[in-house]
Design brief:
Elements (H helix, E strand, L loop, with lengths): L10 E5 L2 E3 L8 E5 L4 E4 L2 H10 L4 E2 H8 L3 H13 L3 E6 L2 E9 L2 E6 L4 H11 L10 H18 L2 E2 L1 H15 L8 H14 L4 E7 L2 E6 L16 H10 L8 E7 L8 E7 L6 H11 L3 E2 L2 E2 L1
Antiparallel strand pairs: 1-2, 1-12, 3-4, 3-8, 5-7, 6-7, 8-9, 10-11, 11-13, 12-13, 14-15
Length: 298
């Protein structure tokens, strides 16, 4: 039984760095894949810089402004990141005195202790009982995914970036099957598909901003309550399915989730802001808090 306090989620799963949070947790290591190696980053400021650059190509001066650090400090970190093959720089075509930074690596996940104890309790609670409905293929595969997720959590691994990439790939395959000339028509086809395969029930809550409610979410409904969102896979799927409507820049924000104590998941989809406009995105999420209740978006 879920007994945690229900809290609207402030996690954004929208860029190459995987989950974007409103803070940079200490004591964590982020893993990135380059063309030739895997690189582990444990520096708070380096993780912050990567998060900024992953939003899109950006100038050195803007990174300095957004981090509040000295130019000399940022220069050292950027040199380290470029040497490691995580980022690259090029002259600004409009001003050759400036350089523009961009990502050339992909996130793998995070090493974190945040959810380990929760996962251990969940694994222990499932022992000794049949954790899926016998003869129900959908519940079996949901259990399989849950085992994969909780074992990763138990070992101190957050694999949201991999789940997000996998979701985007599957979303591209699903997009033609649910295509429609209207948002309502597309969501209706998605709901039919989701229910047919035991993936949950999708309801269109609002057109502006586009807000979807998912009940019986196959990805997270039976996961342990961690206090944060767990639907990186679904977010990847949604970002691909709604790519056309948002000009290949869909911003998918999960504001409610089973894993934060709700009895459903809620996703808000908007057009991704240009680099440097992150505060506008966060402001939109904060504003949504005034209309989000444990019962859903009103």
């Amino acid at each position: 039984m879920r007994t945690s306090i229900k809290v609207a989620i402030k996690y954004l799963y929208v860029n190459l760095a995987g989950v974007i949070e409103n803070h940079e947790p200490e004591g964590e290591v982020t893993l990135y894949s380059t063309k030739t190696s895997v690189v582990a980053i444990d520096s708070l400021i380096k993780r912050r810089i990567i998060r900024i650059i992953s939003e899109g190509e950006i100038s050195f001066d803007e990174i300095v402004s957004r981090t509040g650090k000295a130019k000399s400090t940022i220069s050292v970190h950027l040199r380290d990141l470029e040497t490691a093959g995580l980022i690259r720089s090029r002259p600004d075509p409009d001003d050759h005195r400036r350089r523009l930074l961009s990502m050339i690596s992909e996130p793998i996940g995070r090493l974190t202790n945040t959810d380990r104890k929760t996962a251990q309790r969940h694994i222990h609670e499932e022992e000794g009982r049949l954790p899926f409905t016998e003869g129900d293929i959908a519940s079996f595969f949901s259990y399989t995914l849950r085992v994969f997720r909780t074992e990763a959590m138990n070992l101190g691994m957050n694999i949201d970036p991999i789940l997000h990439r996998s979701g985007k790939r599957i979303g591209r395959a699903l997009a033609p099957l649910v295509a429609d000339q209207t948002i309502a028509g597309k969501v209706g086809k998605m709901d039919t598909f989701w229910q047919s395969y035991g993936l949950g029930k999708i309801t269109l809550i609002s057109d502006e901003p586009l807000t979807l409610k998912v009940e019986g979410c196959f990805e997270c409904q039976e996961l342990p309550v961690t206090g944060h969102g767990s639907c990186a896979f679904d977010i990847g799927v949604l970002s691909s399915i709604f790519s056309e409507e948002f000009q290949d820049r869909p911003e998918v924000v999960e504001v409610e989730c089973y894993s934060s104590g709700f009895d459903h998941c809620t996703f808000v989809i908007t057009r991704r802001e240009q680099p440097g406009q992150e505060d506008n995105v966060h402001e939109q999420v904060e504003n949504l808090g005034s209309v989000i209740t444990p019962e859903g978006v009103q």
